[in-house]
Amino acid sequence: MAAGMDFSPTFPTVLDGRYAGKEDGSCSEGGCADALDGSNQAKTGKPPRNLSVMRHCMSTARLMASAGLDVGSIGLISPSDAKSHFLPVFRSGSCSEIGPKAQMEDEHVCIDNLGEHLAAPADFPSPGAFYGVFDGHGGTDAASFIRKNLLKFIIQDNHFPTSVDKAIRSAFLNADRAFADTRSLDSSSGTTVLTALVFGRTMHIANAGDCRAVLGKRGRAVELSKDHKPNCTSERIRIEKLGGRIYDGYLNGQLSVARALGDWHMKDPKGSSCPLSAEPELQEMILSEEDEFLIMGCDGLWDVMSSQCAVTIARKELMLHNDPERCSRELVREALKRNTSDNLTVVVVCFSPDPPPRIEIPKLRVRRSISAEGLNFLKGVLDSNT
Fold first, then answer.
1. Are strands 212-217 and 220-223 parallel, antiparallel or unpaired?
2. Where along the chain do its domains lie?
3. Are 131 and 111 in contact (CB under 8 A)?
4. 378 by DSSP, 3-state: which?
5. Residue 385, phi then psi, degrees to nearest 5
6. What is the C-alpha separation between 141 and 186, in angstroms, rounded?
7. Which CATH number fits domain 29-385: 3.40.50.300, 3.60.40.10, 1.10.1040.10, 3.40.640.10?
8. How far is CA 315 from the centre of its chain?
9. Which helix (H) or strand (E) holds 223?
10. Which of 50, 104, 149, 197 could form a disulfide with 204 if both were Cys (CB 3.0 to 4.6 A apart)?
């Protein structure tokens, strides 16, 4: 859906409007459908990510440099996609709820037509789209500032558009420094940041924090980001090398994420490395006909729902009504039913104007006694082990 704008449409420009499909981004309790199967999932602790999920690996995709980008920018593309003429059509919907928290600190952005949104020149990469989820903490200042300005830093970076990944990485760091320089905002507030920037079939996912991007690929969940928790092995090693410590899962006993923008009370002077990093991890992939939709959500969703469960719910919803906004509402409603303890923000992005097709499973002589979700999990395991 088209996103709202509240800034002068010059290019490039500071983006200081809310871009979600609805200005408040909220959904009413009565507007959500009944919950689907799986509501008896454990309500404490985050669902294991290694259950019912498929990850890209060298056996299922080959690395290939994306045309027109820097040779260091690597994309994931399967051999069967090389001759594909697929071109995505972007449709998005979003839903936000305060949940049990006293204050809503999440922000998000949905831009389905980036060139039109920016009033960009004719040579601007097209079609293009931009989506983001910003999970704030310690107040709303950091999430609001980054939402308004991050895209500006990307498109004004010297590396854009020849090396999009470098531009995104620089933009995260520059936006973080710019926030520290603001005098009217509380620089001790912070936010995790998850973005998806798409040009044609090439999608760039950037993540700093514990929001998560999950691709729905013919019913299977493909995680495109990693949760940056302090106890994650790679994050723990990085943190301890830089002199940080982890206490009971919290970075320096204060923060439950290892990467975030803002939180300048926990960072060293600008330009120096510190345990709390603003640098994003990047994932680039080439979309194909099998890639049906993308779910982007804050940790309030993933605390109570596995990636595969979310994809299963979203696909069923889209097959019923083909409306990404209603789909995002149902994911939020289901998370609330599972007693999430956080704010909730979900963005669903569809890559086709049509609903997901029904998956035909060949009839077997022996009765099948495994659920569709279990079957997708087994497919992912077999894929990763070949």
1. antiparallel
2. 29-385
3. yes
4. helix
5. -100, 0
6. 6
7. 3.60.40.10
8. 17
9. strand 220-223
10. 197
In our burial notation (b when 16+ CB lie closer than 10 A, e otherwise), range 319-342 reads eeebbbbbbbbbbbbbbbebebeb
Classify burial at 116, counting beta carbons within 10 Å of its beta carbon; exposed 0-12, middle 13-18, buried 19 or more.
Answer: middle
Q: Is the peptide bond before 161 cis (omega within 30 degrees of 0)?
A: yes
* Torsion angles phi and psi, residue 324, rounded to 5: -65, -25
3-class secondary-structure state, position 322: coil
Per-residue pLDDT of the chain (386 residues; tens, 9 = 90+): 444 433 334 444 333 333 343 334 444 433 443 434 444 444 445 665 544 454 433 333 333 333 333 333 334 444 445 456 889 999 999 999 999 999 999 999 999 999 999 998 888 888 999 999 999 999 999 999 999 999 999 999 999 999 999 999 999 999 999 999 999 999 999 999 999 999 999 999 999 999 999 999 999 999 999 999 999 999 999 999 999 999 999 999 999 999 999 999 999 887 778 999 999 999 999 999 999 999 999 999 999 999 999 999 999 999 999 999 999 999 999 999 999 999 999 999 999 999 999 987 776 666 666 777 777 777 776 765 65
Distance (Å, rounded) from C-alpha 307 to C-alpha 371? 16
Contact between 188 and 138 under an 8 Å Cβ cutoff? The reply is yes
- What's the first-to-final CA gap in the chain, in angstroms? 39
Amino acid at position 321, single letter: H
Half-sphere exposure of 43 (CA within 13 A, CB side): 11
Question: What does the DSSP assignment read for 16-70?
Answer: -S--SSSTT-B--GGGSPPP-S-TTS-SSSPPPTTSS-B---TTT-EEEEPTTS-
Alpha-carbon Rg for the chain, nearest whole angstrom, is 20
What is the 8-class DSSP label of residue 211? -
pTM comes to 0.78
Closest CA to 226 of 239, 240, 209: 209
The burial class, CB within 10 Å (0-12 / 13-18 / 19+), for 267 is: buried
Q: How far is 128 from 114, CA to CA, in rounded Å?
A: 5
β strands within 122-180, DSSP E: 128-137
Whole-angstrom distance, CA of residue 42 vs CA of residue 338: 8
